[in-house]
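Step 1: inspect the first sequence and its tokens.
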Amino acid sequence: MKTAGKRRTAGRRKRQVTGSIMAPKKKLTAFEEELIVATAHIQKRDKKLGKIIDQVGPCALKLDEMHSPFASLAEAIIYQQLTGKAAATIAQRVKNLFLDDELKKAAAQEVKKAVPRNRPKKELEAASPTLIGATTYPEPHRFLEVSDETLRSAGLSRAKTAAIKDLSLKMMEGQVPTLDQMHKLSDEELIKTLSAIRGIGPWTVEMLLIFKLGRLNILPSTDYGVRKGFAYTYKTGDLPTPKALLEFGERWQPYRTIASWYLWRAAGMAKI
């Protein structure tokens, strides 16, 4: 009996020691906690989407925090209809246009060091945009000071050049909300206000609302991935119309963003 008692005591001590050296669980942020609540809500209201949730697991929506509305909108314009790599290269070239001469010289030296002399010229040119050190977009007035030809030399189309200049002008005139104002405006108000900017449509604003501002009740009904995920989840065959998707999505209120996130995952499961 004494031996058994000693074993139990030793076991308790072992558990205490083991527990003391285990790393504490990471505390969830308020946003992460809300994602859990939202996911449970969707599962309760929609059994078919609930099956997708069971397959995918917890919602891992990540926010790319917005520090500058102008920079976020300018980048959204640049990235439209391009692959991520191509868009990133052009975005970097646009930023690099506004480096002063000394920084450009220093950057050129870094490029030469990074790419051996015997490598093809194309490889040197490809390395340049990513190695030059501009990390932020300039202030709006700087875009208005350069010619269209200069912006187009970085790879922007005529339409995107005109759009960024229109965005810059509207920023200067105070027609674009500040970050503080954005946090106070409703989803509908932001979509209406920002869609008035040339080159910015409802879909672009919806992506900003989801991934920059963390709005949880956005349903991008024109998004191909969301519509494809819907067709896969509900076995409709054809893609739903935006109107039909919005009507169906009423059941996901007030967490339509989370439903959209899982529909994007479902689109990845589809074979077509």
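Step 2: inspect the second sequence and its tokens, then contrast the two.
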Amino acid sequence: MKKNATPVKENWSTKFKRILQTMAILLSIQGLITFSLFICEEALQTTTFGTWPAQDAGDWSLVLDGVDLLENINFGMKIINYSVGWIQPLAFFSYRSYSKATDYYIKGLKAKAFARAPQVFNSRKVEFTFEPQRMERYGDKIHYINRNIVVVGTELLSLQCGIKVSGIVRLAENGKTVFVEEAKMKLSKGALNGSN
């Protein structure tokens, strides 16, 4: 019959090995997450580079395809970063900043594409600042018009200032006139401050 055995204390080298094993596991997980974020970053850069020759060629439909791809990749990167990226805090803050910068690039690229070829946004929701040249009433609807863009709304706003518009783009039968329907409109900040 055995007597009660006293627990054997771990020696220093065994404790050190466990610490090293734990650190190795943590570093492996951090590396896996950071590498995934890095690949997303590279995909964003490659897509961004692809939008440049498309812009040079004036192929705004292709530019818009690039915008869609940028949005999808950036969304995936945000999911990875916000769900598990905090395990590597320095990478978390770096990739969060990169994602915010990508959001800004997307916003600017959409604005450029809409200014150059609003017709490629057919059936898409858009947001932009609009300065109407004239206004026409059609029943309870008001059409604010600036060349080939017609913003359809119900609110009576001044033609003397910029209007922030959010709505769905519909292409007219002539293929050139762009209607922004279901528009929500408000005066732009510059108009509220008295500057234009």
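Step 3: confirm your contrast with the notes below.
The longest helix spans residues 12-57. The mean pLDDT is 88.
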